[in-house]
Design goal:
The complex is a heterodimer of chains A (266) and B (298). Helices cover 35% and strands 25% of the residues of chain A. By secondary structure, chain A is of the alpha/beta class. In chain A, the strands form three sheets. In chain A, strands 8-9-10-3-11-12 form a six-stranded mixed sheet, with helices on both faces. In chain A, strands 2-1-4-5 form a four-stranded antiparallel sheet, with helices on one face. The two termini of chain A are 31 Å apart. Chain B has twelve helices and two strands, in the order αααααββααααααα. In chain B, strand 1 and strand 2 form a beta hairpin. In chain B, helix 3 runs antiparallel to helix 4, helix 3 packs antiparallel against helix 9 and helix 4 packs across helix 7. In chain B, 26% of the residues are buried. The chains are: A alpha/beta (266), B mainly alpha (298). The interface between A and B is medium-sized, with 33 and 25 residues.
Amino acid sequence: MTDLVKDMTVPSSGHPMVKAEGVHKSFGLAHILKGIDLEVNAREVFCLIGPSGSGKSTFLRCINHLEKISAGRLYVDGDLVGYRQKGDKLYELKEKEVAARRRDIGMVFQRFNLFPHMTAVENVMEAPVQVKRESKSAARERAERLLDRVGLGDRKNHYPAQLSGGQQQRVAIARALAMEPKLMLFDEPTSALDPELVGEVLDVMRDLAESGMTMIVVTHEMGFAREVGDSLVFMDDGVVVESGHPREVLANPQHERTRSFLSKVL
Amino acid sequence: MVPPEQIKAIPVRHYGRYVAAAVVIAILVLIGIAFSNAKINYQIIPDYLTDGTILSGAWHTLYISVLAMVLGLVLGVILAVMRMSSNPVTSTVSWLYVWFFRGTPVLVQLLLWYNISLVFPILNLGFYKNEMNQVMTPFLAALLGLGLNEAAYMAEIVRAGIQSMDLGQTEASHALGMTQSRTLRRIVLPQAMRVIVPPTGNEFINMLKTSSLAYAVQFNELIKRAQDISSTSLAVVEMYFVASIWYLILTSVFSVGQYYLERRYARGSSRNLPPTPLQRLRRYLRMFGSFRRPEVTR
């Protein structure tokens, strides 16, 4: 299965895949992110955990510029997110430039957000055809292989409404992979699923991690974080409270906040 | 286990329903009697239905409705996008347009276009110059009057459709690297169509009838043609009957078309689409032909 992924996540050079320096984000008066510093290396599975409202989803959305950061610097693969720096001045990127950056970053949403008017295979081939100008036949062939890979080869002509939540989320993962991203963002990918469907999505993600994909995963699945994660960050109230290897942080949390959070979810 | 005995109860009698039905039928009969005794020359109606003048009137009604609707649709989409743009100038202009064209009667707008030569006697576009009277034919006045008015309504319908969209759809599209305009074209509009099509069908059926106002600018649509005939034959009410029958034919045909159009844009919104009447017929015939199970439609 894993051999179908071709040369994804080859680090372009020495720098980390994602680097955050003092990232702040406010919505009006609400101060959501209060100075986030972290680094995500290539081929790493980076888990973000924390109570709801702690800013982990907001941070994830800042990485592909779905949200604009208010202060600090955020880099993906060495490039500043959303801006170009010339001297000490920042220039906002044009819409097309932002879109071009996003091609390399796949995103999977809590609510799947599949396009309901397209079949599974059409969902997967949409961006390659529209954005990368791939030929329809090539894109379809690759989309079918990706659907096979997430175990949905026999569901390719179904519309999202005809699929279960777990199947929809697997199509959504295939859709993101179709752009051959160097980084995948997962925003609570299993939170909207029935408990018995969580496993099939986590299996696909585990498989992806083994293939060497760089992944940032906002999750409440501590088991997944412990088994698959390479690093883990616990966020609360807009700051990173604790970080380290998942097994260590989960087994032996150093901070009181982390302890009380983990005691509720584990 | 012994299956339980089937219940055989005496159903409740709804005597009120019988009374209501009797009253309604009696009223219908009275109306029927009144009309059969009225001074209407029913015999001439079938002849005039296929009269050349009436047919040309029906054709004019049809094509001015289609053209005005197309103009309204194109302009309506542009106005809707303008209205939602973050540029305050374009959104205000769009708002003003809708305010004016929706706030004044279509008849007045038609007459204004038709009489525009009173204020602009010469049309000068730089590359094209002519007397306004030559340019502003009944056709053009009808097209502009009906179409520009329709655009105001379509703008609101399209805007409602676009705003009904889940924000997650545009986010997912942007996250895949699609630009704003491509997202609108590929993701937002096709889904918004499901919300836009039913009221647009209504608008078109309204347009078929509203186009009768174009008689005021000498456009040769159904009512104008019917009046042309009745002014010589004196069969005034009969001609209005003939025109009404044609309006009913046109609106009925387009109601069926609307059904198919709505069905097309419902793709993916429900698990199974209801079969079209034609598909139902075919499936029925096929079941007679063999014992194969009927195909499941998407």
